[in-house]
Amino acid sequence: MNKRVVGNILKSKIQTWIKSITDPDLAKSVKNDVIVTGGCIASLLLNEEVNDYDVYFKTKATAKKVAQY
Description:
Elements: H1 3-19, H2 24-33, E1 34-37, H3 39-45, E2 54-57, H4 60-68
Antiparallel strand pairs: 1-2
């Protein structure tokens, strides 16, 4: 799988997650601050099954809001 396809898959997964967040302010924060990392990227590039998606946030405030949510 190429990098563009992987990026599109990750973008779709994140957008689906964001749509499930009922707090509009939190959804906006997540959209602006989310970073996807970890083995999911390698798994997608190698056409392997993805176990999970590791996400981090650019700001501590967003991470705290997500944890409280």
